[in-house]
Amino acid sequence: MSGLGSVFRETKSIFRRCYSVNVHSLKRRSVIKHRGRLCNVEEAPVLRARGRGGGLVTLSLRDLVNGSRFQATFNGTENVEVSEVSWSEKLFLYTDGDKVVLMDPETYDQDEVPASRVPHVEFLAADMKIDVAHCNGQLVEIQIPSYVEVEVE
């Protein structure tokens, strides 16, 4: 019976992370699954009216794995799977070639991230706080602080 309880808990956590909504309900920066890939909604849905059968909804999406941007068209009554995104705070430690090393201040775990995924790496300083978004254990987005104090020599 203990095995059944663990399966139920895992199933419950999966359903809590993903849910289905109508394409009209999507907002900017929502993370959806489109054709098996995690995508970020870049712009609010645009509705185009049709005669019969409802309208068409066009979304501007960005693939979170390779960063490519594209547009997808959905039927107005179609539902899409939305994934929850969890944000955490990391500390920037250093840059090692084409990798950036970030540390979790609570557990002291270090993660290596490709420098191409971090915007404006040249402005980061040691021990700077960075916000990192994860979805289903996968790195989704990195946000650096809006303002950075730098010294010009």
Automatic annotation (TrEMBL):
<dbReference type="GO" id="GO:0003746">
    <property type="term" value="F:translation elongation factor activity"/>
</dbReference>
<feature type="domain" description="Translation elongation factor P/YeiP central">
    <location>
        <begin position="87"/>
        <end position="140"/>
    </location>
</feature>
<dbReference type="InterPro" id="IPR008991">
    <property type="entry name" value="Translation_prot_SH3-like_sf"/>
</dbReference>
<dbReference type="InterPro" id="IPR001059">
    <property type="entry name" value="Transl_elong_P/YeiP_cen"/>
</dbReference>
<dbReference type="InterPro" id="IPR020599">
    <property type="entry name" value="Transl_elong_fac_P/YeiP"/>
</dbReference>
<dbReference type="InterPro" id="IPR014722">
    <property type="entry name" value="Rib_uL2_dom2"/>
</dbReference>
<comment type="similarity">
    <text>Belongs to the elongation factor P family.</text>
</comment>
<dbReference type="GO" id="GO:0005737">
    <property type="term" value="C:cytoplasm"/>
</dbReference>
<dbReference type="Pfam" id="PF08207">
    <property type="entry name" value="EFP_N"/>
</dbReference>
<dbReference type="InterPro" id="IPR013185">
    <property type="entry name" value="Transl_elong_KOW-like"/>
</dbReference>
<dbReference type="Pfam" id="PF01132">
    <property type="entry name" value="EFP"/>
</dbReference>
<dbReference type="InterPro" id="IPR012340">
    <property type="entry name" value="NA-bd_OB-fold"/>
</dbReference>
<protein>
    <recommendedName>
        <fullName>Translation elongation factor P/YeiP central domain-containing protein</fullName>
    </recommendedName>
</protein>
